[in-house]
């Protein structure tokens, strides 16, 4: 019995050895006698985008034989070589002229003998004109002061915003082109040498989390047509009720109201003093928002230089059922220091209104 078991095991051993020899013969041509040499691969590779650019950064690793890296993209159709000096631990390269798209970059290191490391992949989206066109300038409200300086107020920037800063490029009274920078934490500036009647350009810089440089919005051109209402005064009025003073008409908030006394009847009026003569091109009125319909049906505008003698600028309809700004454009600009707004008739004996403004020409 033992002889039979021995004979069976002997046959199995012979078959196994024969198979192994055949396998060795099959793969012999693919075996490298001294083994395959792989240079040390790059470490901690990462990707950042610029405008139609990609920046790759990595640590060179500890292999002293590595002399350069080769970066591939577009499915190995494009590549560049990046030197990796032994004394430079951090390495970076910038790839320019890329289309706005998502890319996978493959990084391999090489030594002087031509050995190539295992690949390291890093991916990311390259920003381009589509992204740039989606950027909006920071909202700004420029106003001309009595002394002809310009105040610009900006909307506050959310702490999570990518907005870094804005630039305003303007023409000075000496016809010099100047640029002022407004950091994201600054909400207002004063320009005391602005050439009134000229335009200014604005651009805004953004730093997305995936970017290595700021992406700048396109320049936009603006014209200043508003006056600083905080410097205006009420120079006359027909009446007001309780705390509903005519000063509420120039406080910048249509939700506050001027209301006249109920015993008084139409016409009602208030007069605004701009502080200096201004060339006016349009007037604006709001009812008290959002839904007060106790405004007039008809209004009249009158201009004056002394608050005594007034020039009739015309009668206009007022839609007391609308909360929108109602704009009245003059056929040609007129220059006055005082502007009287009269309410001619309406559904009640008294009147309630929300806000008044003008646009000026310089």
From TrEMBL:
Domain of life, per lineage: Bacteria
Task: Kindly provide the name given to this protein in its UniProt entry.
Answer: F5/8 type C domain-containing protein
The UniProt record lists the F5/8 type C domain at 217-361
Supply the Pfam families for this chain: DUF4998 (PF16389), F5_F8_type_C (PF00754)
Record's InterPro entries?
FA58C, Galactose-bd-like_sf
Which PROSITE patterns does the protein's record reference?
Answer: FA58C_3 (PS50022), PROKAR_LIPOPROTEIN (PS51257)
